[in-house]
Amino acid sequence: MSPFVNKPPYPNNYGSDFLVLDRGEGCYIFDKKGNKYLDFGSGISVNALGYGREDLADIAYKQMKKLIHTSNLYATEPALELATKLCKTGNFAAVHFGNSGTEANEAAFKYARAYSQRVKGEGNYKILSFSNAFHGRTFGTMSATPKEKYKAPFYPLVPGFETAEYNSVDDLKKILDSSFAAVIVEPLQGEGGLDSLTKEFCEALHEICLAKDILIISDEVQTGFGRTGELYGYETFGLKPDIITLSKPLAGGLPLSATLIPKKVNDLIKIGEHGTTFGGGPVTTAVALKVMSIINDKEFLDNIKELSSYFKSGLEDIIISCSSALKVKGEGLLLGLQLANPNLIPTVINKCRESGLLILRTGSDSLRFAPPLNITKEEIKTGLDILKKAL
Ligand code: PLP
């Protein structure tokens, strides 16, 4: 019996062959035949604390029995506590909860446009994003995602979105005027090839945005909650955001997102202008509180930096012995390896999987590694040995 399913009843945008996964334990996943895989993908940077966690499952179970859903017509204790704690991580006055990264960014666009048009007048609604960005697949976030492959058959998109070159100060100076409501940027580009912001760019962006009252949105959907070795990716690279969007690791594998906004924005938002049915439910927020208590801890974050150095030096060793590997990319535990021949990427991914390692790709020419944040050095070594053989 094969652990794969061929042509399941999923839309064709998903390809045709799927490995059917059954259960997980720590940093390992098992398919339906019992084959074991070390997970360097974490369900695309989601499962930050690994699999099979009794503590998270227990919280979810108890909360499901107690109260499973209320809608945002009512508040619940876990959601209130999480919102309060998230606000305290920076200069934030309120949190809009949602269920996915794209929803977090859509909320940020709505708040930014409402703020800008109320402060600077109607028509000042433009949003700037950057080359190779990925912000989601709904119409607003697709409009902020420059790559054609994500949007070609879906035009017309949302008006008012423009693109600049990532890290180009010249572009910022040329493009940004006060008709822009916001700039959305990933401190480290998760899907787009793992390029990261330069200090010079962050400083110029901050200066221009301050002068023209343009909000800086840090899309932390992939970099947030420890992935880069700090609570937020912007801290690693020196960005000064007004709004933060979070999702993937927030609830340890359950769907939850958060859009953190400052007082000056919140003060101008009116009742009914945004909402959600499922976002910020008591189960996901109860689990997220536990996830946050584990990740937002100096020792835990320092350990991610230590694991990152170990992982990076292992990748550097691979570059020395494998001519097909060119360059180490990324930060923290969102790392990558640029390959000389991008056509080899699917083969390398398949070979790794056949040898018990799950990895991802990023951009046009790199492999991506985003293991659970509590992975051990031994597990990193095991994975790197498999990767080296595959290469
Ligand atoms: N923003 C970034 C930086 C992402 O990496 C992703 C997903 O990969 C998204 C937004 C969209 O998140 P979701 O797929 O949960 O809508």
Automatic annotation (TrEMBL):
Lineage: Bacteria, Pseudomonadati, Spirochaetota, Spirochaetia, Spirochaetales
SUPFAM superfamilies linked: PLP-dependent transferases
Named cofactor requirement(s): pyridoxal 5'-phosphate
Protein's name according to its UniProt entry: Acetylornithine/succinylornithine family transaminase
Pathway info: Amino-acid biosynthesis
InterPro entries cross-referenced by the UniProt entry: AcOrn/SuccOrn_fam, Aminotrans_3, Aminotrans_3_PPA_site, Class-III_PLP-dep_AT, PyrdxlP-dep_Trfase, PyrdxlP-dep_Trfase_major, PyrdxlP-dep_Trfase_small
One GO term (biological process): L-arginine biosynthetic process
Similarity annotation: Belongs to the class-III pyridoxal-phosphate-dependent aminotransferase family.
Entry keyword annotation includes Signal: no
Pfam families registered for this protein in UniProt: Aminotran_3
Organism, as annotated: Thiospirochaeta perfilievii
Assigned keywords, A-Z: Amino-acid biosynthesis, Aminotransferase, Pyridoxal phosphate, Transferase
A molecular function (GO) term: identical protein binding
